[in-house]
Structures are given as C-alpha cells and as structure tokens.
Amino acid sequence: MIDSLLFGLPAFVAIAALTWTMLRRAPARGLRRIVVLNLVFAFASLGLVAALLLGWVEPAAAASAAGVAGKDPQAALLGAAIAVGASTIGAAVAVAYTGSAALAAIAERPEIFGRAMVFVGLAEGIAIYGLVIAIMLIGKA
By the 8 A CB rule, do 123 and 92 touch? Predict the structure, then answer.
C-alpha cells in the first residue's frame, strides 16, 4: 500500500503544479483546459465501466493481467477514505454555493425559507452517499 502512495505522490504533485501554472497564466483558458481534461478522464472511466458491465473485458482477466492477487483489506479502507473525503469536499462546495444563494434569496423573500433549505439539504446528501459507499467497502474488507 505504501508503494502506491509513493508512486502516486509525484504524479499528484506534478498535476497540482501543472494546474497551478495553467490557472496562473491564463485563468479562463486554463480553467477551460482543466474542465476538458476532467471530461476526458470521466468519459474514459465511464468507458471502462461500460466495458466491464457489457462483458467486453473480464474482471478476473484484467486483474490477473495487472498482477493483482486476492483481496486487499488496506485497499478497501483506502477506497473508503477516498469515498468519504471526496464526497465531503464535493458536498462542501455544493453547500457553499447553495447556502449563499439560499441566504440571498431568504433575505429578499423570507417565505421561501423551506424551499431554500431543501436545496441545501440535497447538496449535503452528497456526503451521505460517500458515507454509504465507505460503509459498503469496509463491510467487504
């Protein structure tokens, strides 16, 4: 497990430095490039999931080709930590935007308090989904 962290850390630092450089030089163009890059990775991930679900790639064959053997409880715990961390960060960003918009709307029309809080609650639900996934992963470990 520590090996994957040691190999992943330089990649993370390189990506963070590249992102910082792109946003520092030209913020609008750099942000567009980052969004396009995220979309490319998202569609590649969806393609991999579709290939696994449609049976184009067998999971056991992919695991043996990658040299993965058996269950790794540390990997399940790491996946649970990533699920909780990423969903919490996503929920924080969502609540920041919806909460500030809800406060502005409530300041103008106090009668829409209930509807505004529903939207803030929906944004907070993202963190609950991550927690559910983490519980499922820990149960498998």
Answer: no
CA distances in angstroms from 124 to 16, 28, 43, 61, 119, listed in the order given: 27, 29, 25, 38, 9
Give the model confidence (pLDDT) of 16-37 as tens digits: 888 888 788 888 887 788 888 8
Q: What is the pLDDT of residues 76-109, one digit of tens each?
A: 888 888 889 999 999 999 999 999 999 999 999 9
What pTM was computed for the model?
A: 0.50
- Total length of the chain: 141
Domains of the chain: 1-68 (no CATH), 71-141 (1.20.20.10)
Residue with token string 């944004």? 123
